[in-house]
Amino acid sequence: MNTNTSEKIAILGISDKSERYSFKAHQKLLENGFLNQVGVSPKKLDIAQIEIVESLDNLIDTGVHTLTLYVGEQRLESMIESILAISPKRIIFNPGTENQNLMVQAAKANIEVIEGCTLVMLATDQF
After folding, report:
1. How many Cβ atoms from other residues are within 10 Å of residue 89's Cβ?
2. Per-residue pLDDT tens for 8-49?
């Protein structure tokens, strides 16, 4: 499933550190025309061209198309209910985020599950 550039993309685990992959994904999404982004982080961040919310609960009923994960698989366990509640069309499990429990539950909820790298997907026109 390729994503239209107008769709909402949520980055769980966004960082304001330029060396972090979540920040690089945000930048690369912008470069590819994905301007409708929201970052999820409990930290107070100020990152250009992205709204930051502190909880997944802030995204319920906001129409998230793609949720791209940058949170370790163990930390995701306590977020499964909230992730499913936002009902994204797809979830991208970037390397290191592969939580089998979430993958199974997402698939049962008819959410597309992708084990891949957002940066690679963007670079190869698979996003």
Report:
1. 16
2. 999 999 999 999 999 999 999 999 999 999 999 999 998 989
- Helix ranges (H only) for the chain are 21-31, 73-76, 80-86, 100-108, 118-123
Give 25's DSSP letter.
Answer: H
Helix (H) or strand (E) run with residue 9 in it: strand 8-12
User: Positive or negative CA dihedral for 118, 42, 7, 99?
Assistant: positive
Q: What is the CATH number of domain 8-123?
A: 3.40.50.720
Q: What is the DSSP string of 79-115?
A: GHHHHHHH--SEEEE-TT---HHHHHHHHHTT-EEEE
Contact 10, 90 (CB under 8 A): no
For residues 98 and 8, the answer to whether their CB atoms sit within 8 Å is no
Q: What is the dihedral of CA 67, 68, 73, 77, to 10 degrees?
A: -10
Can you give the residue ranges of every domain in the chain?
Answer: 8-123
Q: pLDDT tens, 56-89?
A: 999 999 999 999 999 999 999 999 999 999 999 9
Contact 119, 25 (CB under 8 A): yes
